[in-house]
Amino acid sequence: MDVNVPDARLMPDTLAPPAAFSGRGRRFAWTLLLLAVAFGAVPAAIVGTGSSYLAQIAITTMIFVILSASLNHVTGTAGLLSIGHAAFYGIGAYAAALLSTRLGLPFIVTLPAAGLIAALFGFLVALPTMRLVSIYFAVATLGIGEMIYVVLLNWVDVTRGPMGIRGIPPIELFGWQADTLLSRYLAVAVIAVACVWVLHRLTHSYYGNALRALREDDQCADSMGINVERLKIESFVVATFFAGIAGALLAHTSAYIAPDNFRFMESILILAMVVVGGLGSLPGAVVGALFMIVLPEALRDIGDYRMIAVGATMFLSILLLPKGMLAEGTALGFVRRSFSRGWATIAGGTPVGWK
Amino acid sequence: MSNTLLSIQGLTRRFGGLLAVSDVSATIAKGELVGLIGPNGAGKTTLFNLITGFTPPSDGTVTFDGQDVTGRKPWQIARMGMGRTFQNLRVFPNMTVFDNVSVGAVGAFGQSPWRALVNGGARSRAVSERSWEALERVGLTAQAGDIAANLSYGKRKYLEIARALATAPRLLILDEPAAGLNDTETAELADFIRRLHAGGVTVLLVEHDMGLVMGSCSRVIVLASGRKIADGTPEAVQRDPAVLEAYLGVEDDAA
Lengths: 355, 255
What we know:
Helix content of chain A is 68%, strand content 3%. Chain A is mostly helical.
């Protein structure tokens, strides 16, 4: 049932099949550069300065990279506006804190358990809300987020309410304890890089294209054979799983958590990272998290004015770059080219498809 | 009747008191190019939605390739091999031309997060090749890397058709493909559809443009006020008094 090319007038002069993609050299260049920053430059700076303040910022940045990248997965890529992401971050943090302080479970168990418990809640929330669209879904996630916050605050028997949970043991793997500044940072960085890598594989693929199709026009995706409801639930579950992982990292690196860490404002902060970085752009989500964590710290010298400066920067960046610092289209092309994820290059050197 | 690809029996849809489609039965055999026409409000779109699973019928059945698909979801029906385009252009505007088409191929091949994670491999290559092939068929390979929203109106039409072709449809349903095209473009489209059909694709053409349907289709089904009033060759249908009445009204002086 092969049809020949229909009409010579419709055919441009690129009948030849596209050239197979070869970007191996550049892929390694970018991968190495990123790994060198995360595992070379930053640790060197922490050791060199011996500053616990710097280490703390680096750890917080890594945790927010996970939060922002995971929210981008569901909100930027799949187009489901969630404004309750911090609640799943909280569920993960409390799960890890309670499992380790009450049951004495090791980090190797509490980390995946925190992700899975957050994902389970994500699944339960997703089931009834997936039929809702746009702003209605957003309001539902807002409500769920507030509900979870109120439970954390008032279920004193389990969560100790506003007093929070203290004495959460540090990250520990097979007898190796992350009790120095450097080792704490390194443990978090390894996990954050792994999380981003997983999200990278998921979004920068044909599976990712199906998710983007949901965002663009879910009815149309439906008639292309895409199981819309299942994909929406999957994307929400994946996002909440990684939020839970981020929560576990917070619990085990700060030793103390309280409900205030997971308020509505945190959800908005994560959303701002995604939007400033570029909705639907994974590199953008990473850059957005860096920007929103590092900028307020860098501006500490101007005291109380710094939050005004941060707000103004956000406002201006969205005004001047409405699609974000690294817009989705640019980011996808960059990933295809520089991480060699594209299928082929067409005439003009544009990479297309996914490997 | 193993040669029957699509068979609808007594298909009926009520919206409150309105009978949008009433007791319509028809069959499409493998390899046919069938037109479905009717004046505005005849129930063409409703019938289309009943066949593709977007609207559940109040009564009647839809059988596709020997299987009862009544009440199945659109994606299930699409995956069985029923591809479609939309009347009011619905490309994915912020995705590239190639990525648009790939969604059709992904729908046909199935998708899972595990596969994306562990290995794209052979499955991804199959999706890529299928998408490229579909773009070649409509002649949009040069635009493969462009954002779909930047294409001209006419090219977006072909993009939609390519996306539907990437699902490897055994039945391709085109919903008013000539809407918004000028005469030259319509003629080109007619030519394209005929070639597609000659290549072995079974096509159901839902149209307003009489010229396109009468010139291309071997059989024409006419709907009026939700009922099927004619079903036959273009020549027979054009002479059918019921069809003339539906399109032109009854001549008063005949009474």
